[in-house]
Amino acid sequence: MNRVHQIDMARSFLARHRARPILLLPNAWDALSARLFVAAGFDALATTSGGVAWALGYPDGESAPWPEVVAATARIVRCAQVPVTADIETGYAATPAEITAHVREIIGTGIVGINIEDGLHGPMRTVEDAAARLRAAREAAQQEGVPIVINARCDIFHLQHGEENARFAATVDRCKAYVAAGADCVSPFGLRDTSVIAALVKAVGAPVNVTGRAGMPDAAALEKIGVARITVASAPTLVAMSSIQKLAAELRATGGFEMLTGTFRHPDAQKLFQTKG
What we know:
Blueprint: H1 3-15, E1 23-25, E2 27-28, H2 31-39, E3 45-47, H3 49-56, H4 66-80, E4 84-87, H5 96-107, E5 113-117, H6 127-144, E6 149-154, H7 167-180, E7 185-188, H8 194-204, E8 209-211, H9 219-224, E9 229-231, H10 235-254, H11 266-272
Parallel strand pairs: 1-9, 2-3, 3-4, 4-5, 5-6, 6-7, 8-9
Helix pairs in contact: 2-4, 5-6, 6-7, 7-8
């Protein structure tokens, strides 16, 4: 991707976090899912660490080799031809220096944003450790000259970290520290209560990303309470996997082929990839 174009897209992507309408990002896991989301009218995408890992043949949780994740992300960016923000979990890195190196690599795929989380494989990182890693990511972006949008995921609610009555305040404190360290957006992963989300938006004073789940209010309702952006994590991947699982079970059980029908056909798939990418 042309670096000037990438920079322009990154700036525009950041601006969309501070303007209406709300930024609704579906999470792609491969070239096909990216093209399908764009064909449906989405003009920006996120990736899903789980979906990408499963498509590559590994469990979620930084089990996939980093070079394969980078290559998969590059294919998604190439085929999407719209702004893409990449979920790189904790950065596939043990140290801030490795974070810097890996963020520079992922920027090379053409992405305009990244997602970095503060909890993986055991206890949550300290605020200081997590903030240092975010500063390293921002340093990488400055070195590359691309103002990527850094979305800092806070896992306090997801991991049920600490006493329940202290989680909100701890999340607010962490989110503020993450913004001070260079994050453009914060994501309280696992938080679904709209009243708590609304309170957190006011308390943090920065763009907030919420993960959409079945049973939650729709995008318009979340926009009204101040949410800046919505992602849907690995849910679309799991929906697709559920459909294939059902087809596989029926094919194995019956030996028949009546289930091999659908509204999407070979010519439709061919047309989907006729655009150069």
